[in-house]
């Protein structure tokens, strides 16, 4: 029994199937991420080494080069390695084969990097290991500024108040802010006073390290009550650091930190500056992770910003400076509007040339059902709504119309020859069944080579091919 005869014999089955497609599509759309382009999942891991004060050449020779050799001996599925070394920082990018398991690769890289720390210059800290993705792009940029508070206070609010609140939004990553001054306690040495007392900078470092401590000291029990004993050697105020003894001479004279240095609330050397409306501030970029929905991220962020603003210092203002969702909405709406215009013009042309409103209605229902079925399958495959998938659906509209017109027109011809409705449908559809199947197959075959692409092109064009092929099959 052919598909046409089955549809004539079980019409309600096909009506219910169409209704299921229509009803299920909104749930699929709610769960599908929306973005401009598909997720580009390139298997790359970045390793960032920091060692302040070391020149770029030394960073490249002593840290990056040695690290690259150890990676090639312990990490599998490496395609190639790139590294860039600057003063005090070295970034190593490890590119993996397309079939590599990125989670296994991260575990291997973390294991070897922890072992590498012992073989590198003393005092270096373990590196920052980041999974790189081309889809991790800024979706929102937030500017923070204040007319009265210093830069380090604004920077401190961005790091310790704003960033921890925003990181709870699903699907985002927030890197280190740009601009501002990284607050720290500075000890400014008086080299003449040190030399006059026979001291070296290392003596000041040792004095601070040995006496600015918080040590565990256990508990003390008196009667039925047990008390926690605090042995806090860390001053409660910055000025208290000036009273730390550095050295006691044989004559009993004690040299304090205030005698050879000045302790102040300062900041680390500033390497970048952000200005907002002429005043210095901080720029915080919010990135999306992989296949997360740009629209959902921006909506959640705008919903949480008023609550975060209430807990920030009164004079610190947070202003969205860039919103990727505006471009995403415009791009998606543009493709949808063009598809609707194409479908509307097609329906008008069918009505003018066939002169039958029933035929026009059938074609007008066939196209949306095919598109909705394509959306359902794309959601099952883990794809997102983007320019490529929507463009594939719009591309398939014209092909779907051609086949629908040929089928309807052939059935109309048999009806005009005086045949009964069901017989005209069976014969008319049967006559063009094989040609329609072959033409559909040929169109699908045209898109098959896209599934053999590699690199970025594969991530971009495979969703388009899937959208066209699924719509045609539906």
Structure description:
- This protein is α+β, with helices and mostly antiparallel strands and 474 residues long.
- Among the domains are: 3-31 and 355-473, Up-down Bundle (Multidrug efflux transporter AcrB transmembrane fold), CATH 1.20.1640.10; 43-132, Alpha-Beta Plaits (2-Layer Sandwich), CATH 3.30.70.1430; 184-267, 2-Layer Sandwich (Multidrug efflux transporter AcrB TolC docking domain, DN and DC subdomains), CATH 3.30.2090.10.
- The protein is built from 14 helices and 16 strands.
- The strands form five sheets. Strands 5, 6, 7, 14, 15 and 16 form a six-stranded antiparallel sheet that branches.
- The longest helix is centred in the C-terminal third of the chain and has 31 residues, at 324-354.
- The mean pLDDT is 84.
Mean pLDDT, to the nearest integer, reads: 84
Quick one: biggest sheet? 6 strands, antiparallel
Question: What gap, in angstroms, lies between the N and C termini?
Answer: 19 Å
Which fold does the CATH topology of one domain refer to? Multidrug efflux transporter AcrB transmembrane fold
Rg calculated over all Cα atoms = 34 Å
What structural class do you assign from the helix and strand content? alpha+beta
Fraction of residues in helices?
Answer: 40-55%
**Which CATH class of one domain applies here?**
Mainly Alpha
**How would you describe the shape?**
elongated
């Amino acid at each position: 029994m052919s598909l046409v005869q089955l549809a004539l014999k079980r019409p309600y089955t096909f009506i219910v199937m169409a209704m299921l497609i229509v009803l299920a599509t909104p749930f699929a759309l709610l769960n599908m991420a929306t973005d401009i382009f598909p997720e580009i999942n390139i298997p790359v891991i970045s390793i960032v080494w920091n060692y302040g004060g070391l020149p770029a050449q030394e960073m490249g020779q002593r840290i990056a080069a040695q690290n690259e050799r150890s990676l090639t001996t312990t990490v599998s599925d490496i395609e190639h390695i790139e590294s860039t070394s600057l003063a005090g920082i070295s970034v190593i990018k490890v590119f993996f084969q397309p079939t590599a398991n990125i989670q296994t690769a991260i575990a291997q890289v973390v294991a070897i990097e922890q072992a590498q720390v012992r073989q590198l210059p003393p005092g270096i800290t373990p590196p920052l290991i980041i999974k790189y993705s081309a889809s991790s792009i800024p979706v929102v940029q937030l500017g923070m500024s204040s007319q009265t508070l210093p830069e380090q206070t604004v920077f401190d609010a961005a790091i310790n108040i704003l960033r921890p609140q925003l990181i709870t939004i699903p699907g985002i990553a927030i890197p280190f802010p740009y601009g501002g001054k990284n607050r720290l306690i500075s000890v400014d040495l008086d080299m003449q006073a040190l030399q006059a007392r026979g001291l070296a900078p290392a003596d000041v470092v040792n004095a601070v390290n040995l006496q600015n401590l918080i040590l565990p000291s256990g508990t003390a029990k008196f009667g039925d009550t047990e008390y926690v004993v605090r042995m806090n050697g860390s001053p409660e105020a910055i000025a208290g650091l000036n009273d730390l003894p550095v050295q006691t001479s044989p004559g009993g004279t004690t040299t304090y930190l205030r005698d050879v240095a000045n302790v102040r609330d300062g900041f680390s050397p500033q390497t970048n500056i952000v200005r907002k409306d002429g005043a210095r501030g901080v720029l915080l970029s919010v990135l999306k992770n992989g296949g997360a929905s740009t629209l959902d991220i921006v909506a959640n962020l705008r919903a949480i910003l008023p609550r975060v603003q209430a807990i920030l210092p009164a004079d610190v203002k947070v202003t969205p400076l860039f919103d990727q969702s505006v471009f995403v909405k415009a791009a998606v709406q543009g493709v949808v509007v063009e598809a609707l215009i194409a479908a509307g013009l097609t329906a008008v042309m069918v009505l003018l040339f066939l002169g039958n409103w029933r035929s026009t209605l059938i074609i007008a229902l066939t196209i949306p059902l095919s598109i909705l079925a394509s959306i359902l399958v794309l959601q099952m495959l883990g794809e997102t709504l983007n320019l490529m998938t929507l463009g594939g659906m719009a591309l398939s509209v014209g092909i779907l119309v051609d086949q629908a017109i040929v089928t309807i027109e052939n059935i109309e011809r048999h009806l005009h020859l005086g045949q009964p409705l069901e017989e005209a449908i069976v014969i008319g559809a049967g006559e063009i069944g094989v040609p329609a199947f072959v033409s559909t197959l040929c169109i699908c075959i045209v898109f098959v080579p896209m599934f053999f692409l590699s690199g970025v092109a594969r991530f971009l064009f495979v969703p388009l091919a899937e959208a066209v092929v699924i719509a045609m099959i539906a």
